[in-house]
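Could you help me review a protein record that somebody else here produced? This is what I was given.
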Amino acid sequence: GTRVVSGSDDYTLRLWDGVTGASIGDPMEGHTSYVTCVAFSPDGTRVVSGSQDSTLRLWDGVTGASIGDPMEGHTSDVACVAFSPDGTRVISSSEDSTLRLWD
C-alpha cells in the first residue's frame, strides 16, 4: 500500500500517506510511554505497536482505531514487533531478553 505508520515519543502512532506525506486521521492514542516499534500486517489491514510501557497494541490499519486490549506479558521495553507471513500471529522481542508469540 501507500500508507506509512510511525511511532513517537509522545506515546502515539500516526498513519501517513506515503505519496503526499499528509497525516491520515488523528494520532492513535493508547500507550503510556514511548512507542518504540510498529509494523503493518501483510495485508495492510492492521498495525501492531510496541512500547516502553512493555505492551503491544493492535490497531485498524485503515482507520487507526484501537483493536482489543493491550497485549501484556513483557516486563521491559518492547524492542521489535512483526506479523507472521499469514498475518495471524505477532512476534515481539523485548529488553527483558524474551521473544513472545501472540495469537
Residues 84 and 90 are 6 Å apart (CA to CA). The two ends are 24 Å apart (CA to CA). The chain has no helices and ten strands.
